[in-house]
Amino acid sequence: MRFHTRKWVKPEDLNANETLFGGRVLAWIDEEAALYSIIQLENKKVVTKYMSEINFTSTAVKGDIIEIGIEVVKFGKSSLTLNCEVRNKMTRETIVTVDNIIMVNLGDNGKPKPHGKKKVEYVRDRLAAEDQ
C-alpha cells in the first residue's frame, strides 16, 4: 500500500476524550479516496458511492502525524474500488482500515460514465508517454 498523505493531528481534530475524532478521520479518508480516484480516472467528477465496514483499532493524540494509504482493489466499468489504511506515522500502529470504498466516475450529466481504465497508472508514466 502506498501512503500518499500525511496529516498533523491538531486540537480541532480531537474528540471529548482528547483523541482523534473518528468523523475527522473519515472526512480525510473520503477526501483522499476522491483525490486518488480523480487522478486515476482523469476526471474531476467522481463521487463516493459506498464505504464498507470501518474498523478502528487504535487512535492518535494531539501532535501525532498520521498517514493515509490507498490502494486499488478493482476497476469496474464506471467505478473504482479502493481500500484504505490510516496509521500513526510515529508508532506505525494502524488507526483505521476500510476494506472497500467504491468511487463512481460521472459524466457531464451527473450519471455514471465508463472510464475505460483497467490498471493503476502513475502520473509520471503518463507524462513520460506524452514526451515521446
UniProtKB/TrEMBL annotation:
Q: Pfam families under this entry?
A: 4HBT
Q: List, alphabetically, the SUPFAM superfamilies matched.
A: Thioesterase/thiol ester dehydrase-isomerase (SSF54637)
Q: In which family does this protein belong, per the annotation? A: Belongs to the acyl coenzyme A hydrolase family.
Identify the keywords attached in UniProt to this record, alphabetized.
Answer: Hydrolase
**Name this protein carries in UniProt:** Acyl-CoA thioesterase
Q: What class of enzyme is it?
A: hydrolase
Has UniProt tagged this entry with the keyword Secreted?
Answer: no
InterPro entries linked? Cytosol_ACT, HOTDOG_ACOT, HotDog_dom_sf, Thioestr_dom
Q: Does the keyword Hydrolase apply?
A: yes
Question: Where does the record place the HotDog ACOT-type domain?
Answer: 1-109
Give the EC number(s) under which this enzyme is classified: 3.1.2.20
Gene Ontology molecular function terms on file: fatty acyl-CoA hydrolase activity
